[in-house]
User: Which sequence fits this backbone?
C-alpha cells in the first residue's frame, strides 16, 4: 500500500490531523457511538451543519467544519439509514466516498472508526476486510491522502483491525 495505515486504540476525537470520519446515518443526525462522541467533543454546530446538508444516500459522504475538534473537517459517511442497519455494501461505499471527499478537500491525514460496527452491529473482522479492500481499490485515485489512521475504541476491534491490516494479499 502506498498510503500509510496506522491502527490505534483510543478515542477518534483526540486525532490531530486533517479530518475524522463520522459513522453516520443518512439523515446525518448525531446520536450515540462515534457520532455522539464527535458532537460532545466538537460541539452541536457540527450536527447542525451536517443535518442542513442531508439527507444523503446510504453509502454517501459529506464534510462539515469540525467545531472544537483538532482537525479541519468531519467527513460524515452514511453507513446506515433510519433503521440503523448496515451492510458490507454500505460500508464499502461509505469508505470509498469518504476517501473521495478527503481527496476533494485535498486532505493528507484522515482518521476512520470501524464503520458500522457500533450501532450498526456489523462484525469487526468483516468490516476491517471491507475497509482494507476499499482503501486498496481507491489507492490509484487518491493522491493527496498520505495517511489513514484507524481509531478503535474497543480492545477486540483494535486486535482484529491490527490482524487484518497486517496481512498482505
Assistant:
Amino acid at each position: 500500500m502506498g498510503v500509510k495505515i496506522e491502527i490505534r486504540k483510543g478515542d477518534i476525537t483526540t486525532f490531530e490531523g486533517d479530518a475524522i470520519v463520522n459513522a453516520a446515518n443518512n439523515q446525518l443526525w448525531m446520536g450515540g457511538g462515534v457520532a455522539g462522541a464527535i458532537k460532545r467533543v466538537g460541539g452541536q454546530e457540527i450536527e447542525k451543519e451536517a443535518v442542513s446538508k442531508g439527507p444523503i444516500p446510504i453509502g454517501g459522504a459529506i464534510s462539515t467544519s469540525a467545531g472544537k475538534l483538532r482537525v479541519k473537517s468531519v467527513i460524515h459517511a452514511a453507513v446506515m439509514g433510519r433503521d440503523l442497519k448496515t451492510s458490507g455494501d454500505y460500508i464499502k461505499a461509505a469508505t470509498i466516498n469518504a476517501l473521495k471527499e478527503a481527496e476533494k478537500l485535498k486532505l493528507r491525514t484522515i482518521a476512520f472508526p470501524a464503520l458500522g460496527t457500533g450501532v450498526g452491529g456489523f462484525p469487526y473482522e468483516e468490516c476491517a476486510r471491507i475497509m482494507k479492500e476499499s482503501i486498496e481499490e481507491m489507492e490509484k485515485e487518491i493522491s493527496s491522502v498520505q495517511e489513514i489512521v484507524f481509531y478503535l475504541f474497543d480492545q477486540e476491534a483494535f486486535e482484529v483491525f491490527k490482524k487484518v491490516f497486517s496481512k498482505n494479499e
About this structure: The CA atoms of residues 124 and 157 lie 6 Å apart. The helical segments are 33-42, 44-52, 88-104, 124-138, 155-166. The longest helix spans residues 88-104. Strands lie at 4-9, 19-25, 61-65, 73-80, 109-112, 147-152.
